[in-house]
Amino acid sequence: MLVGILILEGEPDRWLWVADSEGKYTVKSAYSVLQGEIPTDADFNYNNIWTTFATTSSNTFTWRALMDRIPCKLNLMRKNVINRIEEVTCPLCNEVEESTSHILFCCSKTWLVRACCYRWLGISTALPSEVMAHFSQHSGILSNKNQKQGLMTIWTAMAWSIWTCRNIVVFDGQGWDYERVFELAQLKSWNWIQAKSKEFTCSFYE
User: Fold this and answer.
1) How confident is the model over 51-78, as a mean pLDDT?
2) Cβ contact 8:24 at 8 Å
3) The pLDDT of residue 148 is above 90
């Protein structure tokens, strides 16, 4: 239940307990978790998907990623769509099997996209590699509702852009350009937040 490490510049380090709305551990909340009165990590992440400013289709992609249901190569092999082990290799780095966690967070090619994102946001972070842990970490960074929604929207935009451009590499034979992927995610997140947040007044170029 303790969420992975995340470091915000100018903010003190802290652990977050996802079973409490303020991120604080209490014996009462721990007891409630053990009794099944408070949702598990999976339920917590699932419920937070739909609070972003992203489109329904993009939020649905996030849900599928959290449930490990996107058609990455490892999942296709599990369904016997791919039969040869050599066909499971990540199409971007060509180093390891392409799992959901790998393509979105661990791949040396997609990691550069997220590195750009964290520099843009002014965040220094140690990233968990598991999808739900990664999502949970972001859902608890900020307490302000609109800021929290904005940050989770950016998370969704990053994941969606990585997967979309990965498919362009696989099906259209185009090269991978992490800066172009990051710019796409920036544009998507800005468009989504600008369209749905009444408090959002920033220019795209700020």
Assistant:
1) 92
2) no
3) no
Q: Distance between CA atoms of 155 and 117, rounded to whole angstroms?
A: 9
DSSP state of 86: G
A 10 A CB-CB count for 180 gives 15
Q: Mean pLDDT across the chain, nearest whole number?
A: 80
In three-state secondary structure terms, 38 is coil
pLDDT at 55 over 60: yes
DSSP codes of every residue in 116-166: HHHHHHTEEE---SSHHHHHHHHHTS--SHHHHHHHHHHHHHHHHHHHHHH
Contacts by 42-51 with C-beta closer than 8 Å and gap 24+?
A: 42/66, 42/132, 44/18, 44/19, 44/136, 44/139, 45/132, 45/135, 45/136, 45/139, 48/135, 48/139, 48/152, 49/156, 51/148, 51/149, 51/152
Say which DSSP state 22 is in: T
The closest of 162, 186, 159, 166 to 61, measured between CA atoms, is 159
- At 161 the pLDDT is 97
The Cα–Cα gap between 140 and 145 comes to 11
Calculate the CA 157 to chain-centre distance: 8
Residue 61 is predicted with a pLDDT of 94
Centre a 10 Å sphere on the Cβ of residue 69 and count the other Cβ atoms it contains: 12
